[in-house]
Write a structure and sequence with these properties.
single chain; alpha/beta; Rossmann fold; 5-stranded mixed barrel; 9 strands; about 25% strand; binds hypoxanthine
Length: about 280
């Protein structure tokens, strides 16, 4: 396979040729978050299968599109469709969308996901802004990446998610009556859900929510010097926290309920990002 950085650059050039857009804000939409792109004005949808070198997307709830549009006067690109490690994708492929957005000029990246709540104070339907993360995949997208002076691979991870942006958004969500918490997200490999013993261990480690994405992308985004905002929708309580039997269908159903808040939420997000730009 072609070196991933080169492949990302080639796909970004195709997107530029098709749209002429150079957005500074990007959003990666996780399971069930796809409809968040609907709020964009003057949308142009570019499907993955129209792009040479772009892998296809196979998971329900992930459409496989780049959506370009405007919000709050700024150009935005939203990615509908992740490449999960549990599908057998390599970490390099999992971070391909992040690399493409960076090539397009994106400087602030919003990573969204669905997760199980480990923190007992959480409830399904809550939103959680990521204050930090724990990588339990045993993988890292920077393994084998050639370091350069401008982009060292020994990336400082002291503050992955932008604290100022998070604070501001939390205040604004409160004002709009959107419950928004803060916590530590832990990524597992999946695709099986966790056992009760694993959830107890993850709680002892300091995790508030568990899911199967985001951390690998956040590592790459940090390496690429992006400002990051991470948002989780708690779709269920994690195994053993409640007696619920977990299914991907229920996760998507819960996301559908929460998605009614997306237009208000994303207009807050874009406003806040722009005020920091
Ligand atoms: N575990 C892992 N991933 C998830 C969960 C969960 O409980 N809910 C949504 N994605």
């Amino acid at each position: 396979m072609k070196q991933i950085a080169l492949r990302a650059a080639e796909i970004a050039r195709q997107l530029e040729d098709k749209t002429g857009a150079r957005p500074k804000i990007g959003v990666i939409l996780g399971s069930g978050w796809g409809s968040a792109a609907e709020a964009l004005e003057g949308k142009r949808v570019i499907s993955y299968d129209s792009l040479e070198g772009m892998p296809q997307c196979n998971v329900k709830g992930h459409a496989g599109n780049f959506v370009f549009g405007k919000a709050c006067g700024a150009e935005i690109v939203a990615v509908q469709g992740r490449f999960h490690l549990y599908e057998g994708h390599t970490p390099a492929t999992a971070v391909l969308p992040v690399r493409i957005l960076s090539e397009l000029g994106v400087q602030t990246l919003v990573l969204t996901n669905a997760a199980g709540g480990i923190n007992r104070a959480f409830a399904p339907g809550d939103l959680m802004l990521l204050s930090d993360h724990i990588n339990m995949t045993g993988l890292n997208p920077l393994v084998g990446v050639r370091a350069s002076e401008a982009y060292p691979i020994f990336v400082d991870m002291g503050q992955v998610y932008d604290a100022a942006l998070r604070k501001r958004l939390e205040e604004h969500c409160g004002g709009l009556g959107i419950p928004c918490r803060e916590g530590v997200y832990l990524q597992v490999l999946g695709p099986s859900y966790e056992t009760p013993a694993e959830i107890r261990a993850f709680r002892a480690m300091g995790a508030d929510a568990v899911g199967m994405s985001t951390v690998i992308e956040a590592i790459c985004a940090k390496y690429l010097k992006m400002r990051l905002l991470g948002i989780t929708c708690i779709t269920n309580m994690a195994t053993g926290v409640s007696n619920e039997v977990l299914s991907h269908k229920d996760v998507l159903r819960r996301m559908e309920e929460v998605s009614k808040k997306f237009p208000a939420l994303f207009s807050l997000i874009y406003n806040d990002i722009l005020s920091f730009a």
